[in-house]
Amino acid sequence: VGGLITERTARALLSRVAEPGDPRVSRLVREEGGLGAVGAIRSAVADDASWARRYAARLAGADPEADLARVRAVGGRLLVPGDLEWPSQLADLGDAVPWALWVRGTVDLRLTALRSVAVVGARAATDYGTHVASVLGAELASHGWAVVSGGAFGIDAAAHTGALAARGVTVAVLACGVDVAYPPRHEALFARIAADGALVSEVAPGAAPHRTRFLVRNRVIAALTRGTVVVEAALRSGALATARDAERLGRPLMVVPGPVTSALSAGVHRELRAGALAVTSATEVIEAVGELGADLAPRVDGPSRPRDQLDPLSRRVLDGVPARRAATLESVARTAGVTPAEASAALGLLELAGFVRSGPDGWCLARTPGAPG
Amino acid sequence: VGGLITERTARALLSRVAEPGDPRVSRLVREEGGLGAVGAIRSAVADDASWARRYAARLAGADPEADLARVRAVGGRLLVPGDLEWPSQLADLGDAVPWALWVRGTVDLRLTALRSVAVVGARAATDYGTHVASVLGAELASHGWAVVSGGAFGIDAAAHTGALAARGVTVAVLACGVDVAYPPRHEALFARIAADGALVSEVAPGAAPHRTRFLVRNRVIAALTRGTVVVEAALRSGALATARDAERLGRPLMVVPGPVTSALSAGVHRELRAGALAVTSATEVIEAVGELGADLAPRVDGPSRPRDQLDPLSRRVLDGVPARRAATLESVARTAGVTPAEASAALGLLELAGFVRSGPDGWCLARTPGAPG
User: Fold this and answer.
1) What is the ipTM of this complex?
2) Which residues of A touch B (CB under 8 A)?
3) What's A251's DSSP letter?
C-alpha cells in the first residue's frame, strides 16, 4: 500500500497493523493523526528501525481499501473521531481512546451509546444468572436503553437476547472482526444483533480474537456506556476487568446480588463489599445511570435528537428549565433571557420532542424522555 | 403485695405490671428507681389516678416473689442494672433501657453479649435462607462468638441450631416468659438453648407473647449484640425492625445477599441499597464487628476475663500495647510508664490470658482473643 490515502483509510490501516491500544501507535495518532502515524510507521519500517519491526509484516500485507470494501459488503462502516456518529464519550478513555471503530449494524452508534448500559458477566453462568441477565436486558430495552455486552456465552448472550426479544437495541463489542462469528455458535445471534443493533470492533474485518484483544475490548464496553452491570462473576472472572474499567472511567458500577452459596456470585459480592451498587431490577439500573443520561440522551418515538442539534433559541429555553422541580413559563423565560412568547413557542416544540414536560406546577425536564410509563 | 420490697423485687413487679418499654414507667424508673416507681404506681392506683388505671388490675394480681421463685425453679434469675452480669451496652438504649431481664441459662449474659452477633430474618424462610443462617450460626459459634436471635421459626431457629451444632453459645431473646415455649414446637430447641446458652426476656415468667412485645423485644436483640445480620427478609418483614434498631444504636447492620428473584431477599437488598454492609461469611461478619469487640470481649479457653478485672499494673501495660501494629517491649514499657521488667512480666501473663500476642516485631493486641485459628 503506497501513495496518498485519507485519514479514514489511514486509521483502517492502523487497525490492521497494530493491536488495539498499542501505546506507541496511540501516541503517534495523538500527536500526528492517523495519516501522520501511518507515515511515521512506513518510514521507520523502510529504515528498519527496531521499534517498527513488529509492524513490518502486517504493514506489508495490509490493504485498508479492501478491508473497507469488505465491511461495506456486510453492511458495515468504519467510524473515526470527527464523524457525527463517533461516540463522543470515548474521549474519556484518554490516551487509550480507539483510533477507529468498525461497525456493522443499523443504529447510530453515538446516539445509541448515549443511552446505553453494559450488562456483562460470566461465560459459565448459572440458570439464575442467565435468567436475570435476560430479564434485565429485556427491561432495559423496553425502557428505551440500549444493552451493550461482549457477545460471549452465558451472561453476555442472555443480555443481548433479552434486549432483542423486547425488540430493543443491543450492541456487541467484539474482540474479532465484525464479520467474524466468535464464538462460532453465536453466528445467528450476531446476525440478529447486526440487524437490530450493532456489532462493534477495534480490529479489522476477518481478524481473529486473541486473549489480549478480549481484555482491551472491555474498556470500549465500559466507555461506550453510561454504567456497567455485572450479573454473575466468579472471583477471577474477566467480567471484573470491565468493572475495573467502568470504575476508572467514573461510570457507575452496578452488580446483581446472588446466592452467597454460588461461586458465580462470589466476584459480584466482593465488588459489592468494595462499594459497587447493588441493583435488582432495570428500574434501579436506570435510576443509577439516568441522571447522567436524561438530558443528554433524549429519545422520542422516532430517532433520537440530541440537545446540540437544537436551534440556539430552543437550547437556551431548554437550559432555563429546571431538572428536578417545575417552573412557570415566566420563570423559564426569565432564566433563559427570552420573552414569554418565545419561551412558550420553544417549550411546545421541546415537549413534542420529549425534552420537557408540563405539569400542574409548570415545566420541568423529562427525566427519561421517551420511556414508556 | 404490700410492705417492704427490694429494688430487684420492685423491678420484677414492674415487669409483670407494665409492658416493656412503657414510656411512663420508664421515666419513673429513670427518675426514682424501681422502688420509687412501684411506690408511685401504688399510690396513684390507690388514689385512682387516671394515668395509673391501666396498671391497677395487674398490680392487684402481681406476686413478684412468686415470679422470682418460678424462674429459679427453671434454673433462671432476674438481672437488674448494677448486677455484675447486667449487659452494660444496654445503656445505649437510653430512655428505652429495660428495667430488668429475666434470664434462664448457663452463661454469663454480660460476657456473652460482649462477643455476640444478632442473626435474624424471616419466619417463612427459604431453604437457601435457613441453610445460610445455620452455617453462619455454626461458624460464628466456632469462632467464639455468641449467636443472638429471636427464637422464631425460619432464620432465627436455623441460626440458633447452627450455633448449638457447633457447640457454641446462643441466646434467644423472647417476647414471652423464659419458661414459655412460643412457638410451642420450639420447646425442645429452647431447652437446648437454656442448657448451652440463655433465654432472655423482659416479661415475667408465664407471660404470653403479644404482637407489640415482639416489636419492643427487637431493640433488646439489637442492643445486646455488636451487630445485626439479616439473612432473609421480605419487604415488610419484622426482621427489618431489628435492622432499624441496630442502625439507631450505631451497631453495624449486615445483610446476606440472595437471588434477586426471591421475594424473601427483597427486603435484604433494599437494606443493601440503603447502605447496609453485604456479608457472605462469618469471617466477614467478624471483620465488621470484631474491631469494636476485640479488646472489650477477651475470651480464653476458660471463662472470659474482662479487662477491668485485671490488676492495675497489667491494665496499664495492656493500655500500652498498640491495637494495629506490633511494639517492642521497650516501647510498651515507655508508653505504659513502667520498667521493662514490669512490662515483661505483665505481658507474659496478658499473653497467657489471651489479651496480647507476641510476634517477630514485638507485642500487639490479640484481635480476637481465644478464637480458634
Assistant:
1) 0.72
2) 128, 131-132, 256-261, 265-266, 269, 272-273, 277-281, 284
3) -
